[in-house]
Amino acid sequence: MPPFRDEHILIIAPGSQVTLAQLGLPESFTPARFRFPTRMFPAEKKGEYEPYKIRERRQEVPVSNGNGTDAPKEDVEMKDAESAQQDGAVKTENEPSEQPENAQKTEGQDANGEEKQGTTTEIFYEEDVTSDEGAVYPIQSGRIVDWPCFFALLTHVYNTMSPPFHTPIMLISEPAWSARDRETITQFVFEKFKTPAFCLMDSALAVCYGYGTSTATVVDVGKDKVNVTAVTDFLVNEHGRGIALEGCGGDYMTDRIVELLGPKGFTREMCEQLKRSNITELLPPGTPLPGAAATARQGANPAASASTGTKDGNAPNENIPRGPGEGTQTGGEGNGEADEDEGVLDVAAIVSGNTSEFLANREKEKAEKASTKKGATDQSGKPLRLPNSKKEKASFQFEEYVRIEPEKDTPNGPGRYMRQSREIEVGVERFLAATPKQNSGDRLTGGLLEDIATQIHHTILAVPDATKRSELWDSLIVVGNGSKIKGFTQSLLGTITQKYILSPSATMFTSEIPSNFSTPLPTGGTNTPAPSGQAGPMNHPAGHGVNPLLVAATHANNPMPGTPSMDPAMSHHRSTGHSQTPTSVKTLRPPEYFPEWKEQSNTNAPGAATTGGPGAPSGGHGMEEAVFLGAQVASKVVFVIDQGVSKGFMSRVEYNENGPSAIHEYTM
Amino acid sequence: MNPSIPPSTAEYGGDEVSAIVLDPGFSTTRAGFAGEDTPKSLIPTYYGRYSSDGQSKLVFGDDIFVTPRPGLSIHNPMGRDGIVEDWDMAEKVWEYAFTSRLTGPKPGNPLQNGLNDVPEGELSTEMEGVETEEKLLADSPLLMSEPGWNPTKSREKTIELAMEKWGTPAFYLARNGVLSAFAAGKASALVIDIGASNISVTPVHDGMILKRGVQHSPLGGDYISSQIRALFKSNAPQPITITPHYLISSKTAVDAGQPPQAKYKTFAPDRAPDASYRTLLEERTLSEFKECVVQVWPGPNKLSATGPNGVSNEELAKSSPGRPFEFPDGYNQVFGVDRYKVVESLFDAKAAIPDPESAFPAPTPAQTVPELIKNALNGVDVDIRPHLLANVVVTGASSLLYGFTDRLNQELMQMFPGPRVRISAPGNTAERKFGSWIGGSILASLGTFHQMWISKKEFDEHGPNIVEKRCK
């Protein structure tokens, strides 16, 4: 078989919410070029699916010399031309093929009781890109629940990419997929796409490739599940793996905010946007909440502290737009003012053009505008800039799409949407997203982070090679879009420190150190031992609660003065078995040689106004989708460099010989 | 290859199916595809039961270790001797072992799973009345393991379950001793299996167990746990109580031997998990303790004996540095000679730490490992004894206790000074833990094994008793 080329490789990474895909490997690996929502809409024919919601629209068309289909065509094009002027990013030539072909003539049908003579009712089908009404989500909690829909999605992704025939496919698999699931997918990919080579790679392993590490504990925080995987020497430890831990993903945090703010009139959508906004933050355990609740500890009594935030009540519970938020006016068609146009989303423009690109540009423009505006108000309104974690109240921009009813003079225009946004102010609830839910259902949960920490502990303890466990604790990787919320990783580390880190006296040195060393004095250095449990604002929680003597003895090469007996060889003294873990817990640093991923981390870094605060994130941002970076690295290795020598992928020939069940032999 | 030329249409047409191997144990249940080197699915045999909204719900798998639930109680369908007691639940646990990682839930209707193109108008009407629900293992042969002392009734029940409930096309029931011997690459061996609820000694000759020689006793991993608990109770300066992680919200570092300072969690009485849940999680801490602290006195001789130079072994053990262990509540302590004592009774019944409250009665000398081996060898033909002693296979997770094989070797050399004694104990943890599963995986993927399967047709003809005739 001829070698595969970089530009032919197709990578697909399906997730519960978003499916990432890309054709070809760029010079320097970039974030995924395409992001498809992982959902399909049932098509008119049962068992078939469409990528967008198809709306049926009936309209009256005057019959003129029997050429009924031409009239709407003109209309649509006119409409397009108009919007093209506004947006300047519309390809009109795609448009006609899209709608009138679908139109059906249903003559003699009377819809509105208008004059029968001279008009017919046309049914138009238009794609409604913003609606998710009736959507089928084929992947739920990582599991494939609707196979036909999942395959339709794969086909849609494949067709959108339209790769050449000589395209190897790299598919990232969720841990929740069973062996039979993988076989089914293998069969589908080979028989439907006729791919010459196929690689099914575990998502946790892909993350390890992305980080360039062979051993790590990968915590993947998804929408409503969390996967915790221990990878040792590029091998996924299946036993004890935390697979699709239910009720632990980003939805938990939304649910919790809804629980807190729901009584104040917040809708779920508002809470979701609040969670995504840059004012929502997880504070390390033990950090006091700002404002009136200064004495209340996080988690001590969330209900009580929650109520302190918005005493004045007028702000969040009334849905009144605060201030002259942009786009609050329903901009008339011809107004042409830049500020108002911004709120209007022209569906036709999106449908005909490159959707994701278009939306991305739009988002960018908006973000820029918003940030300049915000910066201005911030400077004028609040001379004293506090970091977000110290502010008792903060506001975020709530945006929603409102469908504009077609106006009378252009009844056949495609559906138009207006983006409304307004500022909503919230109190300290925004720091409580990970606190225990009141209504936790069947789980006696100790809060999101604690559940994840428990799973990490269980997973690492289940690793058979006990000597690797310490390294696993020291190489934690937190990925997944659920972990995007500010302070997530730090809080998780804090929780682990609180519950699981061993005190230094329980580690190996107790027995060997002469008794006068059992309570060491601080060495006057940087590592003053703080009482453990206070993960505090410092970036290395591992440094907390750990005896400086121990740190010095284990990490420094030269023995400390005055303790001549403590050379590193001492640690090998206990040749028997191994010691308990964890003595420390750390996150791995993401690789620094992928500029595109770093750039993304900048745009993702929440609110410039809050950087430098104690709760400021230390890395990890932008790498939420490290799985895709890893998939690119792995594709390069597997398809291009290795060429199948070490059985990295399954070729078509092998598939034809051995069938789908042979996919398990390709150890990715 | 030109990227624009479509590939040839040759397609896979065969139906290669690999058998599923199920190795049910008391503590864990192992399942996977034959031919693989570790079981893909490893779940605890324990399951949880709780009620929510007035409905009784069940939890399987690792989730029972991770998620406390209101009123959760823990049960095990197996009896302490490794024989199934609760068949309904055993079926559910085993099904979970298949479905969670291997087969997924019951296969869907092939017409709708997206893999088959259904031409318009065809098949749609006449297929509707047909039974479409497939059985769980309708397309995979199943190989199961059983302990050497499994009664006939239980064996027949097993094949009925596999054939009638799961619809497997072919079935075989193999002794786990034989499978462990196969995993070690031996057709004849003396298999010493140290499990959670049992230790057993099984003589295997030419791939058949010598039934008269099979010995077993309850001094397994759970017994060692009970000994550790007894040690904790009598610990000085204060008794140690194990508080599992789920009851602790945060801990503070304390010096060795100091009382713990932890913040505890409380559950409302009507929502608190059952005591059996706490026991299960305490067991997790104990297994960590076994891994990190417990050590088998390597010999020569018993821990209570005196060495050649007049120093007692116990003194010798005391002089070796202790091992620290921290409990979930932060309490930590160094364990000195005690860490040898908790396992000594596996070899020396008199050394057992007395605990009147323990569920395990004090061990009798006949239950110790050396005696079991002696009795096993006495039950087999004199001629093959040397052969068996030259092929001693050690398996089972509890045999991973530090120093266990050294001690076993010493004991065997003492008991049988004449013949050559050779222990084969894989150093790889997985191979030791999953010995009998791996043997099953090898066996079921052998071409020559195909004639051994009991087919569905044979089962229908002869009834469940065929398992007695065919699986010896």
TrEMBL record, chain A:
Belongs to the actin family. Residues 51-60, 71-82, 360-371 have a biased composition (Basic and acidic residues). This is Chromatin remodeling complex subunit. Residues 324-335 have a biased composition (Gly residues). InterPro entries: Actin, ATPase_NBD. Residues 51-118, 279-339, 356-388, 560-618 are annotated as: Disordered. Residues 97-106, 577-586 have a biased composition (Polar residues). It comes from Aspergillus eucalypticola (strain CBS 122712 / IBT 29274).
TrEMBL record, chain B:
Gene3D superfamilies: 3.30.420.40, Actin, Chain A, domain 4. This is Actin-related protein 4. Pfam families: Actin. Keywords: Activator, Chromatin regulator, DNA damage, DNA repair, Nucleus, Transcription, Transcription regulation. One of its GO terms (biological process) is chromatin organization. Residues 305-324 are annotated as: Disordered. It is found in: Nucleus. Its main location: nucleus. One of its GO terms (molecular function) is transferase activity. Chromatin interaction component of the NuA4 histone acetyltransferase complex which is involved in transcriptional activation of selected genes principally by acetylation of nucleosomal histone H4 and H2A. The NuA4 complex is also involved in DNA repair. Is required for NuA4 complex integrity. Component of the SWR1 complex which mediates the ATP-dependent exchange of histone H2A for the H2A variant HZT1 leading to transcriptional regulation of selected genes by chromatin remodeling. Component of the INO80 complex which remodels chromatin by shifting nucleosomes and is involved in DNA repair. InterPro entries: Actin, ATPase_NBD.
